[in-house]
Amino acid sequence: MPRLVVTAVDAERDAVLAGLPDDAGITVATVGVGPAAAAAGTARLLAHAEAAGRPFRAVIAAGIAGGFPGRAAIGDVVLATRSIQADLGADSPDGFLSLDQLGFGTATVPTDPALRQRLAAALPHAVVGDVLTVATVTGTAARAIALADTHPTAVAEAMEGYGVGHAAHAAGVAFAELRTISNVVGPRDRAAWRIGEALAALTQAATTLACNSW
After folding, report:
1. Is the pLDDT of residue 135 over 70?
2. CATH code for position 137
3. Is 90 in contact with 38 (CB distance < 8 Å)?
4. CA 199/CA 137 separation, integer angstroms
5. CA gyration radius for the chain?
């Protein structure tokens, strides 16, 4: 059965494709930036494949991300244990209330354990931990500290994993999230970003996807 990798932007898609042979049997598609676009785009791809009689057996949300200081460094490969929508909830006088605390569902989508273990075996140096999904990328030290304190097992921050995971779970398809680190989560400093290095790491990680059954 075919496999699917989705990215937020074309540069990430191209980096993944650069690491795959033409006969890898892996579809790589850009679905857009943010959790809503990612969920809608992934759901559409999964539905079309199922309608065509060639359902995907697994989907990976892939791309670059910010790493939490001391947990994931620039250039690292990260595999998510869970994708957590960290800013989905409500403000209150006592602080942020998550979707779970509000009783309206859950802001956490677990990745598939068997799929994650296969990817971790293929990428033995990968950092494994939670990856936060946010609609607004962190740009201050205070926000970075608050997120790190609230999510002590989070290693990275991105914008699409939770949306992709929701679409995959709804379709009954195994889900994983793979990120490479381009910057530190904290004050916004474009000069310190290493996007080229992170995209190169994404290409290198993609070479393992073609060589391993997932």
Report:
1. yes
2. 3.40.50.1580
3. no
4. 19
5. 16
Interatomic CA distance for residues 7 and 32, integer angstroms? 7
Question: What is the dihedral sign for C-alpha 180, 185, 188, 192?
Answer: negative
Cα gap 195→128, rounded to integer Å = 21
Tokens 């850009």 belong to: 30
Listed residue (95, 161, 175, 165) closest to 131, CA to CA: 161
Q: Are strands 154-158 and 58-67 parallel, antiparallel or unpaired?
A: antiparallel
Q: Is the pLDDT assigned to residue 43 strictly greater than 80?
A: yes
Single-letter code of the amino acid located at 3: R
Buried-state track 30-68, b at ≥16 Cβ within 10 A, e below 16: bbbebbebbbebbbebbeebeeeeebbebbbbbbbbbbb
Model confidence pLDDT, tens digit, residues 85-122 = 999 999 889 888 888 989 999 999 999 999 999 999 99
Domain that holds residue 145: 3-211
Report residue 168 as tokens: 């995959």
Pairing between β-strand 58-67 and β-strand 108-110 as defined by DSSP bridges: unpaired
The pLDDT of 63-71, averaged and rounded, is 97
Q: Which helix (H) or strand (E) holds 129?
A: strand 127-133
Number of folded domains that form the chain: 1
Q: What are phi and psi of 35, to 5 degrees?
A: -65, -35
